[in-house]
Design goal:
The complex is a heterotetramer, with two copies of chain A (152 residues) and two copies of chain B (79 residues).
Chain A lengths: L3 E4 L5 H6 L8 E8 L3 E2 L2 E10 L1 H19 L3 E7 L1 E4 L3 E9 L2 H18 L2 E7 L4 E3 L5 H6 L7
Parallel strand pairs in A: 1-5
Antiparallel strand pairs in A: 2-7, 3-4, 4-6, 4-8, 5-7, 8-9
Chain B lengths: L1 E5 L2 H7 L3 E5 L5 H11 L10 E4 L2 E3 L10 E5 L6
Parallel strand pairs in B: 1-5
Antiparallel strand pairs in B: 1-2, 3-4, 3-5
Classes of the chains: A alpha+beta (152), B alpha+beta (79).
Chain lengths: 152, 79, 152, 79
């Protein structure tokens, strides 16, 4: 069973959810990250996700495996988009099935927090105003759109 | 020593390429990044980056070996 | 927009999720309760859900509205099945869309906890062995924590 | 006084009906439940039940009025 993977195609929530179906599990928690139309005061038109997939898949699998062991849940999966995404599209999906709901919520939260924090994935915002910038990189956005490189 | 260097996100844009073969005397990722900064307009500091060698996270002081694949990882933003 | 409702038909997760779509929301948390094949050591064949719908819908709406206000999320919805359900079927669906994921998780957890605790819905388990029983009735003392009565 | 009483779950099974019209002198839900226990094999105690009048939760001591609709609510188990 897959624990973490990337896709270039639209994520179908019903399909990925079906991978976690389990007649012994009574609870299923999921999280979806959607592309929203604004961030830090800027209007966003679309996003671009890029990943160092070889390491990211290993790191993502480590996170999901750790969640399963730590919270004792039945199954868990994270699927992340790469490529260009429009506002409203599903960027990341996390699902956890479990005997009990408390553990399902905790594992789901743990996975999305760790994925955002540790997995080598980058997000470039394209703004309605026409410019763009890499997210989480304080001096990156300005630099990314500078016509001339700033001297080191 | 020959290395493969891959670039992602901001570093890819600033290097103008996704990967390259580099012939170098740099003994560690720290030395390699200093060398690459003379070639490309990289502004990210070592404190902002992480290092991967052969697709595993490593220290800045890990000795490099011929044939290694090196990636400098800018601040991530998945999800 | 509906906050809480009952249905006699299969809950389609993709359809109910679409009701919460919001271009300003970056996070979506959901919980699903599935009919599992065992409970407290008994093998379960199917469940029967029954509700005092007139009061349950009002109480359910109060819970969802409270979650939206308390956690400041954008939208939230709970849909609950009634009737006969087989193992693996979706019994209850909760979804919350929000600007930030922390609030989405908290609101989702709050809603399912309160719904299980306060809303007049009953569940009868039909066991593989042929007998059946109302859930929580052997543990009535523990389950009978009263909510505050509404002032007359 | 005429009341409408609805039964759900275990109480519905023990009463053998979903609802009925009851003519009673019971002044409160507490008195009404005591009266109904003489008629049906109800085992649930008042501590295990809640009360609704006209589809709102109420106290056991709320005065009943002619035409009220009363429900005794066994321990719930939604979700």
């Amino acid at each position: 069973m897959s624990l973490f993977r990337f896709t270039r195609a639209t994520i179908d929530g019903a399909l990925v959810r079906a991978e976690l179906a389990d007649p012994a599990s009574g609870g299923f928690a999921s999280f979806e990250g959607w592309v929203r139309n604004h961030n830090e005061g800027r209007e966003v038109r679309r996003l671009e996700y890029e990943a160092f997939e070889e390491l990211a898949v290993k790191e993502g699998e480590r996170i999901v495996r750790a969640a399963i062991e730590r919270f004792g849940v039945a199954h868990a999966l994270c699927v992340h988009r790469v490529g260009v995404l429009e506002v409203g599209e599903l960027a990341v999906w996390v699902g956890v099935s479990s005997g009990h709901r408390g553990e399902a919520f905790q594992a789901c939260r743990f996975i999305i927090d760790e994925v955002k924090h540790r997995v080598p994935i980058w997000k470039k915002e394209h703004y309605v105003a026409g410019d763009s910038g890499w997210v989480n990189c304080e001096h990156c956005a300005a630099a990314a759109t500078s016509p001339e490189p700033v001297p080191v | 020593m020959n290395l493969r260097v891959q670039y992602f996100a901001l570093l890819r844009e600033q290097a103008g390429r996704s990967e390259e073969r580099v012939t170098t005397n740099a003994a560690t990722p720290a030395e390699l990044y200093t060398e690459l900064k003379t070639r490309y307009p990289f502004q990210l500091t070592r404190e902002q980056l992480k290092v991967a060698i052969n697709a595993e996270f490593r220290d800045w002081t890990t000795p490099l070996a011929d044939g290694d694949s090196v990636v400098f990882i800018p601040p991530v933003a998945g999800g």
